[in-house]
Protein 1
Amino acid sequence: MNNLVFPILRLLADGRFHSGEDIARQFSVTRASVWNAIQAAEALGVEIFSVRGRGYRLPEPLHLLNEQAVMLALGDRQARFKLELFDSIESTNSYLMQQAALGVPHGTVVAALLQTKGRGRRGRSWQSAFGASLTFSLLWRFQMGASALSGLSLAAGLALVRTLHQYGLRSAQLKWPNDILVRERKLAGILIELHGDMDGPSAAVIGIGLNLRLPAATRGQIDQPVTDMASHLPVEINPNDILGQLLNHLAQVLDEFEQSGFAAMREEWQSHHAFQGETVKLLFPDGREQYGNVEGIADDGVLLVRNEHGIQRFSSGEISVRGMN
Ligand code: BTN
């Protein structure tokens, strides 16, 4: 990776023109090095306008993640988190899983401006682009074993919905087990990976990808209906503020989960459930399909579906759910 790419992108984040000469002077490099870095940024999918005589600029100003601003947004809960911010990384989840095994502390947060190999659930990839999404992972250590953590991913989804509602995005809903939808289009996803014993102490890496402002090219790479915050909110989108608020909500929900399990938040979760009471199509990994009526979620986070055999329980590994519209 070209070392100048991210320093230059930070400079261009103001949305104004910067001449190649000024940039070269600022970083004490040649104009050719600046040009190379701009090419490298474009190869990463960043759109940069280049106008002869004026220089380079981004299509619009961008707020970029920075540690101080996130800490400010965290307010009183600052001490509960330790933030590590990367310009570019393959996957914040993969990195934090490795770090978890090395013993990094509870509350470690790894965020990145760009993920080059973002991972989704069920072995899928998670597409994002520079400035387009908030991508981060949080390490949470539990005294209880991994077997007691069923429902954790639903709890994390609830923290995300609480945050989005706080921003005025009241149409954000949960799709079991933990996708966030707005009008049936995916706004955010959560990937939880566990580390530790089934009955001893355990740790969860909670990875969240939230679409902020997706360029058309990135949308084109995603094989399902997607949306982003910018399409629904008239306000400026500041990832530092969103990350701070989201971590606050996560801390609250995870404390609640540790004390009382998912059962304590089940009602609230169901009140935001996109398919509560509706008929859905269930897809099994072997390609089979089944229809059923969603009764709700059980205390341990499994999906309850009524069909001709009565009420059936499904865990997240077993099926994926599609609405009927
Ligand atoms: C899904 O909906 O399939 C889950 C998507 C999770 C994406 C996030 S982005 C930050 C973290 N790092 C990853 O590689 N994946 C998660």
Protein 2
Amino acid sequence: MEFKRHILITGGAGFIGSHVVRLFVNKYPEYHIINLDRLTYAGNLANLKDIENQPNYTFVKADICDYEKMQEIMQQYRVDGIIHLAAESHVDRSIKDPFTFARTNVMGTLSLLQAAKVYWESLPEKYEGKRFYHISTDEVYGALKMTHPEGIQPPFTTTASSETHHLAYGEEFFLETTKYNPHSPYSASKASSDHFVRAFHDTYGMPTIVTNCSNNYGPYQFPEKLIPLFINNIRHRKPLPVYGKGENVRDWLYVEDHARAIDIIFHHGKIAETYNIGGFNEWKNIDIIKVVIKTVDRLLGRKEGEDMDLITYVTDRPGHDMRYAIDSTKLQRELGWEPSLQFEEGIEKTVRWYLDNQEWMDNVTSGDYQKYYENMYKNR
Ligand code: NAD
Ligand code: TYD
């Protein structure tokens, strides 16, 4: 079959990437979707079992830092669109091992950019019809002040529809024009990669787009991140390590809403633009944790709230950003995207998924799947 487009999705075996790959493979049978992933601890092909045999799907195990391999892949698959999600993504790991973050997030992104540039510039039509879409985070903007610890109701300075707003813990939001001010090695590496992507547009005319999204939650998230880690710990009645006072605020978006935004922006976003993606859904960590405890207890048939005593306050994360809050008005106004799920519904779906997929959780927490992949790819 002759495909209409050849789209390379990097990091497709990870949390958000697997939702993006699934959406594109199912929605666009006329596109060839090439999922390129190194399968680090965070990459898991079991996340894509339901689509792995689709005729428009190909998996390639490769490291984005391997520049020659990236050049080879561009040519072999005649790639005309790239959605770049591959990254080291966990702040706590970046504090322990910043080099790995600089390697993958900065050098890896640069290697992918350069491979795309060399390939696309070698074609008669050059950059026409091409797109390099880089997925970034709101963490590059740094931290907002928590001027209203009790929370304030809409309307705020943002012009997005007020029904989509939850409480806000300050008047300021991250805009596309907010100055970069990263604090963690993770966010510093993502900021650096964002700059490289924009530099490739400004210098070489590469058709790039960058989006900065808030915290995602939902199925297939590696259980080092707050929500899946805590769901699993509550189930096994293990302590819940709350950093500092649990007062830090994050803006949470259901992962399928992010994948849907990526689809819209990939197809209709303006070249060289930045779009912020977020749910207007700010929560203090401790409040989220209470909702998660109650939901897990209820779904497991325990007394609602009986696991509250698992909450254990521990030493704060160094450089812990106080508040993130995205203003996604531009995306809503220009491209018509809005989050589809209210948080209560999303968290219920999420908790239910982790409880129903205990095997997935046991697998990724036991390390067996790592060994499986090591054996499987040992000779390649
Ligand atoms: P994840 O850690 O779950 O997945 C990352 C994927 O990248 C894994 O499959 C991993 O194997 C792969 N990978 C890592 N290094 C690689 C390399 N050198 N070569 C090829 N593949 C490699 O991450 P995620 O949470 O799905 O995040 C995906 C992207 O979205 C990242 O760029 C992240 O910065 C960004 N983001 C994440 C969030 C969030 O809340 N999770 C929010 C905003 C933006
Ligand atoms: P996390 O899921 O690591 O995402 P990020 O740091 O990228 O926002 O953490 C979400 C919030 O939860 C963050 O403020 C740190 C906090 N947290 C804890 O309190 N305990 C934990 O064990 C983890 C993993 C996170």
